[in-house]
Amino acid sequence: MLQRISQQKSYKVAVAGCGYVGLSNAALLSKFNSVTVADISQDRIELVNNGRSPISDGDLERFLNEDHDLSATTDLTAAFSDAEFIIIATPTNYDPQTNFFDTTSVVSVAKLAISVNPNVTLVIRSTVPVGFTEHLKKQLNFPNILFVPEFLREGRALHDNLNPSRIVIGGATGTEVEFARLLQDAANKQDIEILFMGPTEAEATKLFSNTYLAMRVAFFNELDSFALSRSLDTRSIIDGVCNDPRIGQHYNNPSFGYGGYCLPKDTKQLLANYSEVPQNLIQAIVRSNTTRKDFIAEHILKTNPNTVGIYRLAMEKGSDNFRSSSIQGIMKRIKAKGVEVVVYEPNVNEDKFYNSPVIKDFNAFKAIADVIVTNRMTDELLDVKKKVFTRDLFGSD
Length: 397
What we know:
Layout: E1 12-16, H1 20-29, E2 34-38, H2 42-49, H3 58-63, E3 70-73, H4 76-80, E4 85-88, E5 94-95, E6 100-101, H5 104-116, E7 121-124, H6 132-140, E8 145-147, H7 157-162, E9 167-170, H8 176-186, E10 194-197, H9 199-229, H10 234-242, H11 263-273, H12 281-301, E11 307-311, H13 326-336, E12 340-344, E13 352-353, E14 356-357, H14 362-368, E15 371-373, E16 388-389
Parallel strand pairs: 1-2, 1-4, 2-3, 4-7, 7-8, 9-10, 11-12, 11-15, 15-16
Antiparallel strand pairs: 5-6, 13-14
C-alpha cells in the first residue's frame, strides 16, 4: 500500500467523456489538480460549466456548485494539448454482431491524444475486452497507457470514487504510482488498498468482478423463482441462507434481472473472451437473465390483466439511466402477448416509450393500470399496494 502523503504537485488532467465515469473522475481529481473534461455534446458541456450535472447524481450536483479547478469543453485538442494525464472514459457499448465491446471511441480518442501530446500518459477507464490495452499499445506504437478499472454505481459515482473499495492500476509506464497517488489523495476514505498489476489482468479484474455480482443477483433471483413456483416465503429462505457469514447480507434482494449499463454487457464480453476456454458457469450467468425475465412476465400474465403499468424504468433509485434495465425486458414480453402496457417515467419527455403510452399524471397512471409493475417498491405506491407486483423484499437496490 502506498504511504498516504499530501500531494506535492498539481497536475493538468484531461478527461474524455462526460458520463458517469468521466465526470465523477473529473470532479474527484479537480480537488487538487487542474482538470478539463471534454465531450462532443455541447449541451453537457454547457451544463457542467454552469454548475449543473448532466447526469443524476446528488454528490455531483453539489460538487459542481463548489469552487474547484474544473472546466469543460468540446475542443478535445485544446483539452489534451498540455495535459500530463488524459483519462479516457468514453462509452464502449456491447456489439451483438461482433460479440465484443465497440472500442471505436477509445481508439479514436487515444489517437488524437498522442498526436497532439506525445509525452502524455493515457489512462483508460472505459471498460474494454481482456487484452485490449496491450493490443492498443502495439497498434499505436505507444507504451504509455494504463488501464485503471472503475467500480462505480449509477447515481453514486462520485461517492464511490471518494470512497473506493480498492484502486487497481494496470500497467507499468513509470507514472503508474503517481496516478495511484492522485486517486488516493483525492479520496475521503483512508487506508485504500492499491493493487498494481498488468493491464490485461486489470481488464480481467473488471469483467470478473461484474460477472460475479451478476452471478449473485442471478442466484437470488432463481431462488425467488423457485419460491414463487412453490408458494414459499422467499424472504424466510434468503434470511436463512444469508445469515451464514460466508454468504452475507448483500446483493440478495430479488429483482427482475440484472440490468443497467455495466452488468449485461460485461458478462457478455467476458463470455466472448472465453471463446477458446472451457466454461459452463459464465454462459449460465448470461442465460439466467433471460430465463428470469421470461418467468416474471409469465407470472404477471397469469393474473390476466387488461392493462399493465410500468412504474419507472431505471434500475436503481437516484439514477436517471434506464439503458438495458430489466423492467424493459418484462415490458416487452407482456406487450408481445397483446396486453396493453402504460408507462410512468418522469425522465421520458416523449408521449410514447416503445410504442406504449407514457402517462404524465401519476394519479391517472395508478387508476389506469390493473397491475403496477415496479422493480423497487416506493412509498408513492403504498396507496395502491394491492395492485403492485414487485420482487423487492428488502427495500434496497
